[in-house]
């Protein structure tokens, strides 16, 4: 027997993305975004409310970075989703995290998060079914602590996922299969 749930945003896992930008004075701002994905290879789509400081910064600077939040920084990641740079310009400083300038785009890379996509702003889609911020990925970097034999080891990244059903964060670490391969065993 299946039970009806009163929820519409039921896809799990959703990512926990840290979207980093520069404020007008050059200080760093970061927000938490779960409504984001790879729209196609090399293109990210982030459904960010237009009034967020992050969106103003992206439009002004033409760039942003997207880091994958990890389990070691759940509190910081959540804080970046409950405070706005519109209200507190020192929001990022309050988080205790640190950042370096991207070598490729006019946006900061958060040092503490192991994986980062550096993006150029393409457009903001604000129609009823618009996707929000669309960006082109021009560089992807990873901390060497999560690289084994020249490949990312996701079990070392300790990424977290957002559960929209009960508003929880979950650790995503255990590899349970090989994509495009395991299923071949059932091909007739
Ligand atoms: C788990 C979580 C996920 C969130 N996902 C989004 C999102 O995808 N899009 C969005 O516009 N806001 C999202 N928010 C809310 C923003 O992070 C929040 O409004 C933040 O204050 C915006 O920061 P800014 O004004 O400094 O840019 C999320 C918040 C949390 C806690």
Descriptive overview:
It is built from four helices and 14 strands. The chain has 188 residues and is mostly beta strands. The longest helix has 9 residues, at 53-61. The protein is globular, with a radius of gyration of 17 Å. The mean pLDDT is 97. It binds flavin mononucleotide. Flavin mononucleotide is lined by residues 29, 31-36, 47-49, 52-54, 78, 81-86, 91, 162.
Descriptors for this entry?
seven-stranded antiparallel sheet; mainly beta; 188 residues; three-stranded antiparallel sheet; binds flavin mononucleotide
How widely separated are the two ends? Answer: 33 Å
The pLDDT mean sits at 97
Hetero groups: flavin mononucleotide
- Count the beta strands: 14
- State the major sheet: 7 strands, antiparallel
Summed up:
It is built from four helices and 14 strands. It has 188 residues and is mostly beta strands.
Task: Record the SSE blueprint.
Layout: E1 14-15, E2 17-22, E3 28-33, E4 36-40, E5 43-46, H1 53-61, E6 63-68, H2 74-82, H3 91-95, E7 99-101, E8 108-110, E9 115-125, E10 132-142, E11 147-148, E12 151-152, H4 154-157, E13 159-163, E14 168-172
Antiparallel strand pairs: 1-13, 2-3, 2-6, 4-5, 5-10, 6-9, 7-8, 9-10, 11-12, 13-14
Flavin mononucleotide is lined by residues 29, 31-36, 47-49, 52-54, 78, 81-86, 91, 162.
């Amino acid at each position: 027997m299946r039970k009806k749930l009163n929820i519409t945003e039921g896809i799990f896992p959703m990512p926990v993305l840290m979207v980093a930008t520069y404020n007008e004075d050059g200080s760093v701002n970061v927000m938490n975004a779960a409504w984001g994905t790879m729209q196609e290879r090399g293109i990210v789509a982030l459904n960010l409310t237009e009034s967020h400081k992050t969106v103003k910064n992206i439009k002004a600077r033409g760039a942003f970075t997207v880091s994958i939040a990890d389990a070691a920084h759940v509190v910081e990641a959540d804080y970046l989703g409950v405070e706005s740079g519109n209200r507190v310009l020192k929001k990022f400083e309050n988080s205790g995290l640190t950042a370096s300038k991207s070598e490729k785009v006019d946006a900061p890379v958060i040092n503490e998060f192991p994986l980062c996509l550096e993006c150029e702003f393409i457009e903001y889609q604000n129609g009823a079914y618009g996707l929000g911020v669309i960006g082109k990925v021009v560089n992807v970097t990873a901390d060497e602590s999560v690289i084994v034999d020249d490949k990312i080891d996701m079990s070392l990244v300790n990424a977290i996922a957002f559960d929209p059903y009960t508003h929880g964060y979950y650790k995503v670490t255990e590899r349970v299969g090989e994509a495009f391969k395991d299923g071949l065993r059932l091909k007739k």
